[in-house]
Specification:
Shape: elongated
Order of helices and strands: HHH
Largest sheet: none
Strand content: under 5%
Number of strands: 0
Length: about 60
Amino acid sequence: MSTSIRVSEETKAKLNRLKQDDESFDELLERLADDEEPIAIGSWDSDTADRARDAISRSRDSFER
């Protein structure tokens, strides 16, 4: 039995970025909903986020020269 789930184009694009090449959307949603492996998207600590911002800034500066 199958069920349809409506999502916006933006949500579908986000799911597409998370989906592995050999994975169906059903497998993706099952993986994301699995309690044993919680996803931690965008959960950097402040120090890691600051270092990433600095690296991006340095990279952008190097292109402007």
